[in-house]
Write a structure and sequence with these properties.
Elements lengths: L8 H28 L7 E6 L26 H8 L4 E7 L6 H11 L4 E6 L7 H9 L5 E7 H9 L1 H12 L3 E5 L5 H10 L4 E7 L7 H15 L4 E5 L11 H15 L4 E3 L12 H13 L3 H16 L5
Parallel strand pairs: 1-2, 2-3, 3-4, 4-5, 5-6, 6-7, 7-8
Helix pairs in contact: 5-6, 5-7, 7-8, 8-9, 9-10
Length: about 325
């Protein structure tokens, strides 16, 4: 009931009427949002999650203990409870741990958790132990490839031992994730041209472009060049920013940069969960890209959320 002069039966009527109109306005707003997100993809593959357990006897090398959000048990049951009601049917795990044995730990975890459709591993390219572990891991059906950071990509172009290990991925029909910032893109162009048979996935797009005009123009030109290489895919997994709106309109220009370069056949969905929890809840992360790709049409949306990830990763049907 409103407080003030209208406290009698007439005031009660006005209060009820006001509440009714408020509900109708909210219902109209939500109805519009629902229409915008109508007919979401029936199946979604999330190509970027991390699983780990600080409670293991050896602990974890990441995240650090002082991270109140991330330093907690983060295993498939927790993910399934959150993501399955949203239409997620599978996830590709990207190994953040530098401990080689954690690649095997994730693959063993996957045997009991069919939500995991593949692993992008973490191996030290260029080091003596790479070949031994690579040969063992490539025999595991859920092992899809490895991830390298910008420094390792640069080393791959300069050091034969590192390049030889990256080349093994192409020979085994496995893929390479690359993670870095805008300055890395020119090196990825060179790597893609030297290994045209290697599928490459660029993690965590869209990037924040450099403030320097020359650096910004160079990075954007490199992104467009990568869009011309059919073996290179763009993982849209870094959309929301801290203390920023959770609507697609706010991010449209940044998303358009990726879309204009890669088109509907080579963009793929990733959440970067649980790191994404530092910015927004999982559902908000999903809804922003769902809203954006819904505007591109049903076919584009289904490719982004499912089909393109299959082409990029060759993940395993569980």
């Amino acid at each position: 009931m409103w407080r003030g002069e209208n406290t009698g039966r007439g005031g009660l009527f006005l209060a009820v009427l006001g509440a009714y109109h408020a509900r109708m306005r909210r219902r109209t707003f939500l109805g519009g949002a629902a229409a915008l997100l109508a007919q979401p993809p029936e199946k979604i593959i999330d190509t970027h999650t991390h699983f780990y357990d600080p409670a293991r006897p050896q602990g974890v090398p990441w995240p650090p203990k002082d991270d109140a959000v991330l330093y907690r048990t983060t295993l498939p049951p927790r993910y399934v409870a959150m993501a399955a009601p949203l239409g997620i049917v599978g996830t590709v795990v990207v190994e953040a741990s530098a401990w080689v044995e954690d690649n095997y730990w994730i693959l063993d975890l996957a045997e009991e958790n069919p939500i995991i459709v593949g692993l992008v591993g973490n191996l030290p390219a260029g080091r003596a132990e790479f070949r031994e572990h690579f040969e063992r891991l490539r025999k595991r059906r859920l092992f899809l490839g490895i991830r390298l950071n910008a420094q390792a990509v640069a080393r791959g172009l300069a050091e034969p031992a590192v390049f030889s290990d990256i080349e093994r991925l192409a020979g085994a029909n496995l893929e390479l994730d690359v993670v870095g910032g805008p300055a890395m893109l020119a090196d990825v162009v060179r790597l893609a041209d030297r290994l045209p048979g290697l599928r490459i996935v660029i993690d965590h797009l869209p990037f924040d472009w450099p403030a320097d005009p020359a650096a910004r123009d160079a990075a954007r030109a490199a992104l467009r060049e990568l869009g011309k290489r059919p073996q290179v895919y763009a993982k849209v997994s870094n959309v929301l920013r801290r203390k920023a709106p959770t609507s697609a309109g706010f991010y449209r220009a940044a998303l358009d940069d990726v879309w204009d370069a890669f088109g509907q056949d080579r963009v793929i969905y990733g959440s970067n969960w649980p790191v994404s929890d530092l910015v927004a809840p999982y559902e908000a992360v999903l809804n922003v890209v769902r809203e954006y790709f819904a505007g591109k049409g049903r076919e584009a949306s289904e490719k982004y959320f499912f089909a393109n990830s299959k082409a990029a990763y060759r993940w395993v049907e569980r």
